[in-house]
Each structure stands twice: as C-alpha cells, then as structure tokens.
C-alpha cells in the first residue's frame, strides 16, 4: 500500500530541533490489516476515501462532515486512527531504544521487531481487545505485542497511558499547526497581491455600515491581511512553544523510571531528554501531573478560535460587498446560485467560512472547562471531550483556510459599480471642499455653508423620496452663486483626492510588515503557490 503520510510531509517545515532521521521513520510504508475507515484522510491511491468506496454500511451511519465533506486529505490523515496509533507505536519504539542506550536489558532484535511493525496495525484485533479490557492503551499494547512477540516483555516499560496519549497528541497538534501555517501563508500572499493591485482604486468607506469617507479597495484588503498576520504569528508562536510531555510516569514524578535505573537520576533525566529529541521537540515539561497541563489545550484552541473571528469579519465584509455588486468571490461556469432563482450568485464560499468560523470560535469553551476541572494530578473526564474538541478545531481551521485560498485566488472587482456608488455619495462629501474653494475665491463662509446646506437637502430629498440620482453637483453648477468655482468642480470632485494616504499606507504596510513576516516562512511560502485551490464540494 502506498504511504499516506507522504503528501503531508512534503509541505512540512522542518523544526530546527527535529533530529535528522525522523522524517525517514515517518515515511515508512504503511501496512494495515483492514479497509481504512472514513476518518483516514490518507492520500495513498489504495487508501483514499472517496464516494466510490464508502460502503453502504458506512452510509447508514453518521459521518462528521468535517471529514466526509470538507477537510483536506492531509489534515484528515493527521487526526486519523492510523496516524494516532502508529505514533503510539513509534513512541514505544523510541522509549525502548533510549532505554537500551542507557543500559536496560533490551536487545537489537526486539527493537528491530518493534520498528518493523510500527505501522502494521490490526485494528480489528485492537477493537476486540478494547471491548474486552475497556482500556484503549492496553488494548494497543496487547495488539502490538501480538506482532512483536520477542519485544512483548519490554513494550510500555515503566510508562503510563499518558506517555503515548499525551505525547502523540502533542505531535499531532504540532504537525497540524504546520499544515495550517503553510496554507495561511499562501492566503496572505494572494491577498497581498490583491491589495497591491487595487491599492489606488477609490471606494466608499463604511462606518456603522453607512457611507463614510473614501478609502481604497487595496487598503480595505490590508485590514484583513493585518488580522491574518496576527493569526500567523499566533500559530507559529504556539507551535514553537509546544513542549513535549516526555517520560514522566503515573503522577509526573518519574518514580517508575527511577526504579528501572536503580535510583540513577541522571539516567532518568537523559531518558526524558532523548525521547523528547527523537520526537522532534526541543523542550519537555519539567512539571506534569499524570498529563501535561490542559491549559496548553486552552492556548492551542484559543489561537484557532481567534482565527475564526478574523475569518468571520473578513468573509462578512466580502458578503456585504457582494450584495452591493462591488466585489464577488469566484463563481464557476456551471455553478448554481439558487435552485429557484437562476440569476442568483450567492457568496456560498464566504457563507461557508462564516458558518464554520462560528463553530471554531465557540470551541475554546471546551478546553477552558476541561482545564478547570482537572482535579489534583488528573481526572479522566478530559479524554472524551479532548477527542472531539482538538481535532474539530484543527479540521475546521483547515477547511476554512482551503476555502479562503479558493476565494483569495479568484476575487472579482467591479470598478464601474464602485465608481457609481462613489458618485452617489461624493457630492455630499465634497461640500467642505466646495466651501473652502468659494472662500478662496472671495466668498463668505457662513453664506456659502447655508447655500450648500439648502441645495444638499433638496438633493437628498430627491434621492430618498423619488429614488433618483444625487444631483447636487448639477444644482451647484446652475446656481449663479457658485459661478466663481464651476470650472474647478471636476478637480474638487476627483475621487482620488479623497483617499488620503491610503495607497501609501498599502505599500508601506506590505514592505514593512507583510514581506518581512513572509520572508521568515520562506520554505512554506514557495511550496505549491502556483497550484490553484479547488473546493471539495
């Protein structure tokens, strides 16, 4: 069977602390004893789950749309059973290898047997063992031992369940952030190109969702990019600061390992450090209960939920602009907007992002509540909640980013519609400029103000009561009072004189903040940037 871990690792940004052999170990051929489940998001030819190979039995069960409908193969695989339990086995192998190096009676033959069977998982046996023992970790200890009879006596030696459970979760979260960071960089790149292209195109600004002073299309995009940059830095900060649980024992005291090494504290410390480094982490928690502190999960999901807020704001902006027919998300040739109204061009991509973002934003309540009730060294009521919350947070963020990539690659701008809306509002906004021009021509400021006020009210009544266009400029042109400045009106009403420093701000923001940030992620920024992003559905 082809290796389902490959595509995810092609996009990985190697950690500086990651030891050289880790990717090679991760890319061993996968052997599996039964048909992959729908949760296996592998991209191998024989194992990818498509609508063609979903069984009738599976279609008779609930399947989370996060995986069955939306998520990328890479992120689906990252939270799959295959990734989880092969990582457990890899952790057991690393533990035994380091224990041997530190002097325990473990043979090369035992290690070789464990390493060869890291991905040879019989899930049917594992499920039967768990039904029998009501303990997922011991079920997989016994399943691993069946294909490693020589290594059976030393599997899980000195460890507690959290050794594989927590450490595997930390590996998965680290890898999940790497996938998200890669996509987020590409989104920022696309939107930066968009902002640069439209840096000088005037458009109505809106405050309180009412027309306000002009800005530019590119400047508004920079507001979105600025929030995404904050999310990018948050993702990278949390990924970089993730600590390994390491080798800590049942209540975090390392007592079992101290006993294994006959009271030699230095060997226990070396074991913890060596396993941590083999897993690709530079640091491990010094203090643990049975588990790593669940406050870490709060931190992880918090930055993902915060990202959800960014997306909801941005995609709501695009939806509102689409209703004004100024900007649209991509719309495919055969895409149908409405089953009843053939003319509709609904912003379904942005609507999907907003829908998923709402789910992502509330997920932070789960780890917050879980952390608050972890009595003493640990309680097991974190487990079932964590199995749902953490994968859903990463899967949802991944889906949003895939959709946002598709949006950012094909945003359509309608300059003539934008200009029409400007012309409807600009005469009112230009009244102060007209007054200043009249004063410069020798007029009285108060007298001019009253003239403009009277004409503006009549024009506004025409717009609101009769549904006609704003004719304030025409009224000014035919009023003899304003004869001294009539020949200057075109200059006074040039939209580009109302956008302030918006273009300069765009170029400065890109050069001083966006480009230096993306330069720090050069490897990810140059990978697969030319390939268009397609939606799953």
UniProtKB/TrEMBL annotation:
Catalytic activity: N(6)-(1,2-dicarboxyethyl)-AMP = fumarate + AMP; (2S)-2-[5-amino-1-(5-phospho-beta-D-ribosyl)imidazole-4-carboxamido]succinate = 5-amino-1-(5-phospho-beta-D-ribosyl)imidazole-4-carboxamide + fumarate
Transferase listed as a keyword: no
EC main group: lyase
Protein family per UniProt: Belongs to the lyase 1 family. Adenylosuccinate lyase subfamily.
Alphabetized GO MF terms: (S)-2-(5-amino-1-(5-phospho-D-ribosyl)imidazole-4-carboxamido) succinate lyase (fumarate-forming) activity; N6-(1,2-dicarboxyethyl)AMP AMP-lyase (fumarate-forming) activity
Subunit structure: Homotetramer. Residues from neighboring subunits contribute catalytic and substrate-binding residues to each active site.
Organism, as annotated: Adineta steineri
Biased composition, class Polar residues, residue ranges: 37-54
Pathway info: Purine metabolism; AMP biosynthesis via de novo pathway; AMP from IMP: step 2/2; Purine metabolism; IMP biosynthesis via de novo pathway; 5-amino-1-(5-phospho-D-ribosyl)imidazole-4-carboxamide from 5-amino-1-(5-phospho-D-ribosyl)imidazole-4-carboxylate: step 2/2
Assigned GO CC terms: cytosol
Protein name as it appears in the record: Adenylosuccinate lyase
